[in-house]
Amino acid sequence: MRLLKTLIPGDIAAGLALTGKYFGKVFFSANRKKVRAHLKHFTQEYPEIPVRLAPRFRGRLTLLKDEQGEIKCVCCLACEKICPTQVITIEKGKMEGRKMPYPVRYDFEMERCIFCEFCVESCGFDSIILNHQFELAAYNREDFSLGMEGLGQNMFAPSPVGKYSVAED
Amino acid sequence: MFKSEEMEINLGPQHPSTHGVLRVKLRLDGETVVKCTPVIGYLHRGLEKICENKTYFQGQVWTDRMDYVAAISNNLGWVEGVEKLFGIETPRRARYIRTMLTEMNRIASHLLWLATHALDIGAMTVFLYAFRERELLLDLFEAFCGARLTTTAFRIGGLREDLPPGFVKQARAFQAIFPERLEEYETLLSENRIWKKRTVGVARINAEDCIALGVTGPVLRAAGVPYDIRKAFPSAAYAEMDFEIPTRPEADTYARYLVRLAEMRQSHRIIQQCLDGLPEGPVMAKIPKILKSEVNEVYHAIEAPKGELGYYFVGEKGGVNPYRMHVRAPSFVNLQALPKMIEGRLLADVIAAIGTLDVVLGEIDR
Ligand code: SF4
Ligand code: SF4
């Protein structure tokens, strides 16, 4: 009995049948449009084909402006206080013709941000969001210090585009 | 003719099969392990101390980074521990959603274990298949909270937001295919002669030793002890769920494999019950804006995928952060069983033993 089992490798054959089944499915449907639902590719050709993210995806912190182009932030400092890694620094200021305080500086050190979204949650004025940007790598440390102005590295820019980033192409 | 002497070698800390930065000092006689000493601490970040300097609300983000393959379980332990400290009641719907996500996380963690354990022992295909299903779960986590790994999924008092639209449908789609996929893994492994040769009878540890060392989770259950915190001290919505505790008497690597597969089936059952019986209602309780504690101490344990995960809080009077916070990490305690399992056995079994313990170094070193 034992010898028979060794000679006829049923267990290995069952495994091979399974992998063969998948191989066949992929092989015979490779050039057809209609791929069966569960055979949808799990690996993506990422840089060429953009990734689809969930609506709640937590990316880089962005300051928002309202319809008049005014910064929505009113310097209540709630986000600065709640941030677990203390990466937001805000300087309060006044602007002509604006009742609410106005952020003179809004500094954000992205290298230490952990994308927890606590800041967005704490903001009662909906003036910040975490956008869907995830290609955040850069070559220099300075590229991670974002502020309200700067060379395309500011908090309103859709994304901090690194020199060799895919997003640039 | 040949002089024989014992030799000491290091396994790790950069060996791919030690699952991170675990270093194991091994004293070998030929190929037999005479003595084994795990050396830990390469990933120490002082998480407990950091959490003592953060508020109860902020501390949760650090729990993601302990057992990073089961972040939602860690979140659950933290928020429930804090809720216990402050006596906060969570709405029923929030508890159901928490239970569901934690069970999904258990499946994801067990899938990662299966994938890497099989890969260590030499079965490549299972790795790819298990990651395929884990991907579906990570997509669900991303849809729910916006992150795939470091989730920060729950909030003290409930959830930040309700389930996103389409979540239930997506979860049901996963539920529909998963049992079939589990059978595929079994086809590949359960009867496979190479797999059985590498696992049956390997790295035994009996129930007495498990209990003496404090080992919990699937390792303890595979030694025949039906201890599961979900049943023993139910939190979240586990008391309302109908599920079994799978156990095996053999206490070897193969038994632990079977127990974990059976656990995935039970988790699948719990998710189904959560989806079917999801109550309506709010997901957030009314809690004060700033949580200030009294002098109080609380220990709260949950059943993480790896075993008993406990949080111990000591509150100060009027303090917004814990005076002392301690984590009882299951991987840390389970790792103590490693010398017992492999001393006197072959070097190749060390890899199987580390894999079967399912340790995550982020949690061991904290
Ligand atoms: S996402 Fe978290 S870490 Fe990043 S800035 Fe906001 S609060 Fe701070
Ligand atoms: S919480 Fe909102 S309004 Fe307050 S400082 Fe931060 S961004 Fe500005």
Walk me through the topology:
The complex is a heterodimer of chains A (169) and B (366).
Chain A: H1 2-7, H2 10-29, E1 61-63, H3 78-82, E2 88-93, E3 102-109, H4 118-122, E4 128-130, E5 145-146
Antiparallel strand pairs in A: 1-4, 2-3, 3-5
Chain B: E1 7-11, E2 23-29, E3 32-39, H1 47-52, H2 60-63, H3 71-86, H4 92-121, H5 124-145, E4 154-155, E5 158-159, H6 167-189, H7 193-199, H8 207-213, H9 218-221, H10 229-232, H11 253-276, E6 296-304, E7 307-315, E8 324-328, H12 330-335, H13 338-342, H14 347-357, H15 361-365
Antiparallel strand pairs in B: 1-2, 2-3, 4-5, 6-7, 7-8
Helix pairs in contact in B: 3-4, 4-5, 4-11, 4-14, 5-6, 6-11
The structure holds iron/sulfur cluster (SF4) (2 copies).
The radius of gyration computed from the alpha-carbon positions of chain B, rounded to a whole number of angstroms, is 21 Å
Count of runs of 4 or more consecutive helical residues of chain A: 4
Mean pLDDT of chain A: 73
Report helical residue fraction of chain A. Answer: 10-25%
Order of helices and strands of chain B: EEEHHHHHEEHHHHHHEEEHHHH
Give the tally of β-strands of chain B: 8
Which ranges of chain A are low-confidence, i.e. pLDDT below 50, for 5 or more consecutive residues?
35-39, 159-169
Number of strands of chain A: 5
Major sheet description of chain B? 3 strands, antiparallel
Number of domain modules of chain A: 2
Question: How many separate domains of chain B?
Answer: 1
| CATH arch. level architecture of the largest domain in chain A | 2-Layer Sandwich
Largest sheet of chain A: 3 strands, antiparallel
Give the CATH H-level superfamily of chain B: Cytochrome-c3 Hydrogenase, chain B
Find the CATH topology of the largest domain in chain A: Alpha-Beta Plaits
Q: The CATH topology of chain B is what?
A: Cytochrome-c3 Hydrogenase, chain B
